[in-house]
C-alpha cells in the first residue's frame, strides 16, 4: 500500500513550510521570519494548481475546505466526515491500512483527487521550545545549527524530528559584553514533530492521490483566522482555548508571536456518533455520562486560571498578563464552558464563530474555523 517514493516528503515539508507566519499575508511580522526560498518554492507549486485542499485531522473526524489560494471568499468545498474509532489515537496513526482505505474513499467521495494539500501537524505531536543561537549565523546556517544541536543541547521526546525555527530580527537580539568581548545571541522558537509520524501522514496522503505541500501548526491557523476576521490590538495578550471533543488546546499570543502552547487529552472515551438531521450536525456519544463531562469541564476552568497565572508571574515576571480570551472548539459542552469562563474571569471573552468574510455576513459551522485558518495560509487578506 505505502510506497517509498515519498520518503523524502517530510524533509521537503520542513524545507517549505512546516512553520510559517501566524498571519502570513505577504508581510513581515515582528518576531516571525519566513524563508524567501521556501516561499518561492511554495508559490511555484501553487501556481501549477490553484485548487488547494486544507485538511484538519482529529482522532474522530476529518474536516476539509478547498479554496483557490485567494482567501476565504474562494471557498469551494466545506465538508466533514467522522473517522472510525481506533484508526488514530492522540494524533498517531494506529491502523495504517484502515486509515489509508478511509482516506482513499474520502478522496473519491469528495472529488479531490490530485489536489495539493495543506494539513496540520496533530496538536499532540507538536513540541515548542524557546531557544538561543549565535547571532552571527546566516539563515541557512541556522537550520544546520539546530540540526546538530537536537539530541545534544536540545532534547526532544522523539529520536528523529522534522522541525522549523522562528526567530527575531537581528536588531532585536540580546547582547552582552564581558572582558571587553562582545557576545551576541538571538532568540528563537523551535517547533518540532516526530519524523516517523509525519512520514506516515505524508505517505498515506500521497498514496491516495493527494499532494502534500505544507504542514502547519493549528494554533497559528486559528490565530490567522482570528486576525483575518477581527481587529486586534497588537499590544494585547490573547489566550485561545480550543475545547474539542477529546482534547483541549491552549495558546497565548502577544504581538503576533506564539508564546505559550499546550495540548491536553481530556481522558474521555467515545462510543459513537449520529447525525442530527434537523440541524445537520454530528453529535458525539461518550462512554461518560453528562455529569462526568461537566466535571471535566469544571476541571479545565481551574487549569485555565493556573495557566493565566503561570504566564503572568512565571513567564512574564508580572510585567504582562492576558488581556483577552478567545474560545472555540467542537466539544458538545463548549457553549457551557464559554459561559462559565465569562462568569469566572474579569477580561473580555470572545466566543469564536465561523465567517467567510470580515463583514461577518456569511457564517459557517464554527467547527471549521481551524480549516479556514489553514485556507488563509499564504493568501492575501480578504478585501471584500
From TrEMBL:
Source domain of life: Bacteria
User: Which InterPro entries has this protein been placed in?
Assistant: PilM
User: Under which name does UniProt file this protein?
Assistant: Pilus assembly protein PilM
Amino acid at each position: 500500500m505505502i510506497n517509498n517514493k515519498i520518503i523524502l516528503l517530510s524533509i521537503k515539508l520542513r524545507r517549505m513550510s512546516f512553520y510559517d507566519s501566524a498571519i502570513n499575508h505577504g508581510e513581515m511580522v515582528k518576531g516571525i521570519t519566513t524563508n524567501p526560498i521556501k516561499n518561492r518554492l511554495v508559490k511555484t507549486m501553487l501556481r501549477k494548481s490553484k485548487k488547494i485542499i486544507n485538511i484538519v485531522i482529529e482522532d474522530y473526524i476529518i474536516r476539509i475546505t478547498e479554496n483557490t489560494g485567494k482567501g476565504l471568499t474562494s471557498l469551494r468545498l466545506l465538508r466533514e466526515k467522522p473517522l472510525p474509532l481506533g484508526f488514530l489515537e492522540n494524533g498517531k496513526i494506529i491502523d495504517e491500512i484502515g486509515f489509508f482505505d478511509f482516506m482513499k474513499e474520502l478522496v473519491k467521495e469528495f472529488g479531490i483527487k490530485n489536489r495539493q494539500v495543506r494539513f496540520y501537524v496533530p496538536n499532540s505531536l507538536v513540541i515548542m521550545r524557546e531557544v538561543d543561537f549565535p547571532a552571527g549565523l546566516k539563515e541557512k546556517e541556522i537550520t544546520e545549527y539546530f540540526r546538530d544541536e537536537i539530541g545534544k543541547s536540545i532534547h526532544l521526546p522523539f529520536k528523529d524530528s522534522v522541525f522549523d525555527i522562528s526567530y527575531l530580527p537581528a536588531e532585536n537580539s540580546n547582547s552582552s559584553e564581558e572582558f571587553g568581548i562582545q557576545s551576541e545571541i538571538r532568540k528563537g522558537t523551535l517547533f518540532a514533530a516526530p519524523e516517523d509520524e509525519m512520514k506516515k501522514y505524508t505517505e498515506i496522503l500521497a498514496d491516495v492521490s493527494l499532494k502534500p505541500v505544507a504542514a502547519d501548526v493549528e494554533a497559528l491557523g486559528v490565530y490567522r483566522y482570528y486576525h483575518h476576521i477581527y481587529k486586534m490590538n497588537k499590544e494585547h495578550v490573547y489566550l485561545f482555548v480550543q475545547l474539542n471533543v477529546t482534547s483541549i488546546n491552549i495558546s497565548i499570543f502577544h504581538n503576533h508571536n506564539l508564546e505559550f502552547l499546550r495540548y491536553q487529552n481530556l481522558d474521555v472515551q467515545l462510543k459513537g456518533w449520529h447525525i442530527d438531521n434537523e440541524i445537520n450536525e454530528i453529535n458525539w456519544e461518550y462512554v461518560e455520562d453528562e455529569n462526568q463531562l461537566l466535571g471535566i469541564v469544571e476541571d479545565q476552568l481551574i487549569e485555565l486560571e493556573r495557566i493565566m497565572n503561570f504566564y503572568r508571574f512565571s513567564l512574564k515576571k508580572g510585567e504582562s498578563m492576558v488581556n483577552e480570551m478567545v474560545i472555540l472548539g467542537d466539544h458538545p459542552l463548549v457553549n457551557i464552558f464559554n459561559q462559565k469562563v465569562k462568569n469566572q474571569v474579569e477580561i473580555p471573552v470572545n466566543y469564536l464563530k465561523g465567517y467567510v468574510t470580515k463583514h461577518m455576513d456569511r457564517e459557517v459551522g464554527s467547527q471549521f474555523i481551524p480549516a479556514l485558518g489553514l485556507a488563509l495560509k499564504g493568501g492575501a487578506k480578504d478585501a471584500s
